Structures are given as C-alpha cells and as structure tokens.
Amino acid sequence: MIAYIEPYFLDNDADAASVTGQSFDGVSESLHIQGEILCGGAATDIAGKDFGGMNCVKPLAVVRPVGPEDIAGAVRAALRSDKLTVAARGNGHSINGQAMAERGLVLDMRSTAENHFEVGYLPGGAFVDVSGGALWENVLKRCVSEYGLAPRSWTDYLGLTVGGTLSNAGVGGQAFRYGPQTSNVTELDVVTGNGDVVTCSEVENSELFFSVLGGLGQFGIITRARVLLQPAPDMVRWIRIVYTEFDEFTRDAEWLVSQKDESSFDYVEGFVFVNGDDPVNGWPTVPLHPDHDFDPTQLPQSSGSVLYCLELALHYRDSDSNSTVDKRVERLIGRLRFVEGLRFEVDLPYVDFLLRVKRAEEIAKVNGTWETPHPWLNLFVSKRDIGEFDRTVFKELAKNGVGGPMLVYPLLRSRWDDRASVVLPEGEIFYIVALLRFVPTCAKTSSFEKMVAQNQEIVQWCVRKGIDFKLYLPHYKSREEWIRHFGNRWSRFVDRKTMYDPMAILSPGQKIFNRAP
Ligand SMILES: Cc1cc2nc3c(=O)[nH]c(=O)nc-3n(C[C@H](O)[C@H](O)[C@H](O)COP(=O)(O)OP(=O)(O)OC[C@H]3O[C@@H](n4cnc5c(N)ncnc54)[C@H](O)[C@@H]3O)c2cc1C
C-alpha cells in the first residue's frame, strides 16, 4: 500500500483536489485489505477535521477496515515505511485533533461498528461484547430493547464510540458509583502498534489491558470491548436544584456521592450558570420542562454573579408506585440545602434520559453551532483546590458564561483503577470541570480567539497557582507539558509505549511522541 499510495499522493499533492473522491480499490486488493481505501479530498472530508473544528490536516488515506486483520494490515504497512502513522478515528468528537494523522493513515472505526454484539452471563454478572467502533447510543438501544439490560456508566452524550471514550476514561453522572467507563470493561481485543492482534484483560496480558484504558490511543486500537451490564430501569426521575453558595453546593454534592451504593441517587452531576436571563448560560437553561419557569424572586438578595445547580436522577420501575418514588426522593433531598422554590423535576423513560443531549445536538445542528468551532476545556481539579478554582474561574473569568454549559461535579478516586493510563489529581474526591463553549454562527473570529485565550489563561493560572489539576482529554504541544501532565506516571507511560508501539505509529494527533524513523 505504501509503495503505491505514498509516492502517488506525495507526487500529486499539489493536485490533490483532482483526486477528490477517488477510491483505491486496486490497492486494497494488492494489500489484502478488504475494506475501502480513500485518498485525496475524500479522505480529508472524512478525517481532516474534528468536532473541535480548530485543526485541519490532510491525511494520506482513510481506510475503512472490515475487521482486526485490516487494522493490523494498516499498522504493519506503516511499520514497513519510515514515516507513516496510523490514527484510529472513532466518531471524530475530539476537540484538538487527537484522532487526526497529518499525511498518515486514518482508520475509520465506524466501519467495524456492527462486528460484535453478543450478550453473555458470567458469575460476576451480565456483559456485552461490542465493537470498538460502535456508538454508545446504539449499544444502549440494543441492550435495552433486546435484553432489558444496560451498561452501568455513561457519558452525557452518546454519539461517541466505545474505543474513543475508553481511550480517555468516559465520565458522567454514574461515575461516582461505578467509576468511569474504563472501570466497567473486563476484556478487550486490541491491535498493538507492533501489528499484533491480542486479547487482554485483568488476568490475561494485563499490562496491555491497563495501558490501553485511558491510553489516548497510544498503545493499541480497540476492536472489541466486553462491557459490564445491569438490569435497565424503566423510568428516571430527573431533578435540578439550585444553590447560591458554592460551599453548600459542594457539601451536598460530596455527601451524595459518598453515600453507600443504592442509598443515593443513581446519577449526580452539577453545573454553574449565570445569575441572569441569558438564554445560553442563565436562568432559562435550568428548568427541565417548557412549562416550568425559573422564578428569580426566590433567590436571596445576597446571591452573586453565578449560581450552581445539582442535577440528580433516580431510577425506578414501572411497577413502583408514585408514592414509593416520592419517598425515596424526599428521604435524600430533604437533607440538601438548596434554595427553596428552585427545584425542577420531570419523569421520563430511562433511554430518553440517557439520550437527553441528543436534543441539544439537534438544536445545535439547526442553528449551525454544531459546525462552528468548539474550544472546550475539560479538567479534573482536586477537592483541595476547587474552592479557589470557583473564586477565580467561575466567579471572575467565566462570570458572564462561556457560550455553553459549565459542568462541575465530584468523583471518587477509589472508583478508578490506578493501573489504567489516565492520570488524576491527588485525594479521594476530585471534581470534573467542563467549559463546553459553542461559538455562535454570526460571531467574529475574535470571539473564538478570546475563548481559546481564556482556556489558556485558566490552564496557566492553574499551573502558576500550584492548583492540583489534570487536563481531561488532554492537549499539550511540548514534551515538557506532557511530562508535567503525567507527573510520576510519565516513565510508566513511556515504558508502555516502548513495549506496545515502539515506532510511535499510533494516534499521532495526541502529539505526545514523534514517529521513529
Ligand atoms: C458533544 C460531546 C459530549 C461529550 N460528553 C462527554 C462526557 O459526558 N464524558 C466524557 O468522558 N467525554 C465526553 N466527550 C468527550 C469524548 O469522550 C471524547 O472526545 C472521545 O474521544 C470522543 O469519542 P470519539 O469516538 O469521537 O473519539 P475520537 O475523537 O474519534 O478519538 C479520540 C482518541 O481515541 C483514539 N481512538 C478512537 N477510537 C479508538 C479505538 N477503537 N481504539 C483505540 N483508540 C481509539 C483516537 O485515535 C483519538 O486519539 C464529549 C464530546 C462531545 C463532542
């Protein structure tokens, strides 16, 4: 393939537009790759941009693999060349080009989405084997409709692939109880950077298993994941309660996530919003139903520029009576110190609750902001420093909003497996913070640049002040920054790279290692 595509593409680079859409079927056959290979404009259309919309690259080719053998074939072809890289691309929902490969091969993992779907039962409980390229949304729908079962830990938005979120962590409102998605898989099939196809788990090839989980695509390409399941509830009571004081918000949130399993809500998240009627970040964004109004006269005079909201959910069955559900909710909520009168709730089917962000996606697609850049910033901040973070970032830098949701909620370190590659702040409790910025379609370039600059300012402030933080979905350009990010885990990360991808072929878009010549 390299002998054929690389010289062709490089020689014709200036005329790349003229090969737009050309499919290299003959090449696939000569290389025994069964899947389709696309070059030129067709490859750039698929893999030249991501959801972040801030990076543009030209891949050499996009391969649509049929299965692990095609993936291993692409990796081995790259190994035979002296500069080629390979990026698995899930659904391309990264922000900073992490799934891109400038002049490299991009594997469009969505073509493998249907390769696995098998539910099984072990003494530890039910599981489903799914493809690395499957969308979580489809995993949810099939598990619930065909088996009445569901994975335990979710991201907020499900238009993401299994391999994409497992390469990071996969964090949502269930993670306080079950850990991130990486803590909810028991076995993987992986194609390493050596071109080997390996099955791994906690007991079989365990170093590879834990390397790949949260491994930023650096050690192998996940083709199959075994995901733990639980019985799916029928319904969810979805609740939002409002706070004016950050310390009361964090005290209640930490209390809720520290309760024993089954004695708390099934989902706990939180967000910050602007104390005003801004349609993007303010009061109107809090109620859960169009008939509910946010009544600002309920707020005390002392409330500041931003407010906080705990978002909670309780699972139940159709057979549970209303009064049983009410009692379970009141037992927990009665202990919380939110602003009286600022409580919103709706009941909805479990699947609709998990697909709630899809509605936001549809709206953003209609108003055009799904396509504009998304300079998002995601961090983990230690409990020790979250108060200072609130005072400087939420109350000052972001007090007028960030153009989209601002999430902040606590997680428990003990629910994460230290052997996985992801790095966390110190201490049992830490917070995930997400500034999910959307750029309006009519905005000037300067407003987008200001958002990027503000993200940098926040990260630099964290470093300067010695805030105990880690970027989630990290994005750094220099080796020094990566070394600082991994801290005392850097040498483990490097050792794993040496073992599983010594030529640094995989996921070049993370910009951690340079391709070895
Ligand atoms: C609207 C939206 C909402 C989000 N909500 C959440 C959330 O609630 N919680 C959360 O944790 N994250 C969330 N994310 C972030 C998301 O989890 C990551 O961006 C994730 O990487 C996206 O998955 P993807 O399939 O698009 O991966 P891509 O962006 O395609 O890839 C991400 C990285 O993983 C690698 N990769 C992809 N597939 C594989 C594979 N099969 N094997 C090995 N490596 C692979 C890529 O090379 C790349 O380095 C959200 C993102 C968006 C856009």
From TrEMBL:
GO molecular function, one term: cytokinin dehydrogenase activity
Cofactor section: FAD
Annotated InterPro entries: Cytok_DH_C_sf, Cytokinin_DH_FAD/cytokin-bd, FAD-bd_PCMH, FAD-bd_PCMH-like_sf, FAD-bd_PCMH_sub1, FAD-bd_PCMH_sub2, FAD-linked_Oxase-like_C, FAD-linked_Oxidoreductases_BP
GO biological process: cytokinin metabolic process
Keyword entries, A-Z: FAD, Flavoprotein, Oxidoreductase
Gene3D superfamilies, alphabetized: 3.30.465.10, FAD-linked oxidases, C-terminal domain, Uridine Diphospho-n-acetylenolpyruvylglucosamine Reductase, domain 2
Swiss-Prot/TrEMBL catalytic activity: N(6)-dimethylallyladenine + A + H2O = 3-methyl-2-butenal + adenine + AH2
Protein family according to the UniProt entry: Belongs to the oxygen-dependent FAD-linked oxidoreductase family.
Protein's recorded name: cytokinin dehydrogenase
Organism annotation: Brassica napus
Phylogenetic classification of the source organism: Eukaryota, Viridiplantae, Streptophyta, Embryophyta, Tracheophyta
Name of the gene encoding the protein in the UniProt record: BnaA02g05340D
